[in-house]
What we know:
Elements: H1 3-6, E1 16-19, E2 22-25, H2 36-45, H3 52-69, E3 79-84, E4 87-92, E5 95-99, E6 107-109, E7 114-117, H4 120-129, E8 137-142, E9 148-153, H5 164-171, E10 180-185, H6 188-191, H7 196-209
Antiparallel strand pairs: 1-2, 3-4, 4-5, 5-10, 6-7, 8-9, 8-10
Amino acid sequence: MNxxxxxxxxxxxxxxxxxxxxxxxxxxxxxxxDTVRNDKADEQAKLSPVSFSEVFSYVNDFLExxxxxxxxxxxxxxxxxxxxxxxxxxxxxNGIIAINxxxxxxxxxxxxxxxxxxxxxxxxxxxxxNLNNPYDIVWLKFTNKGHLGVVAxxxxxxxxxxxxxxxxxxxxxxxxxxxxxFIFPLTPDILENRTSGDLEIAIGNYLILKGVxxxxxYSHNN
Length: 222
């Protein structure tokens, strides 16, 4: 891989604490006076948000850099539609602007270590983009003040306030903008031998380099 791209796949060590030799992602509930993620959220919230269109373009541009590095030199230039819950959603190049949708929670069975249920919309996306798995996506959600709240992966799009990103958004006196999310399907020519988790890290780091404030700044390192 191009060394200039490789750096984006490295985790931020500040995101973790160490216990018994194992690294764990820091929490947001201030246990043991650990306020690193909380302090970072306050810092990010004071920065002016970057426009939605710029954020979308940054992610699309980065995915094209990855595709090119994987040997796929011809850029994806696309303006298309996909019906999700019978609502036509816009596809631009490598991403979907998903508007006014509700998302059912996925269900994971710890005993079998398998997902037992997920929203059918993920299957629709998977079929449209020829994904290896319906969970091969990265998605972005924003706040009512226009800040990027979190960069996340997998088929669990949600606007829950009780999760870490929701708690941080509430902490900075903002709320989720539930009207839309950006979804970037991770096609085989993007992933190659990488995982969706790898791309989650890289996309988050690339957006940070581009000056995009992220309220849950460290979440994509998990």
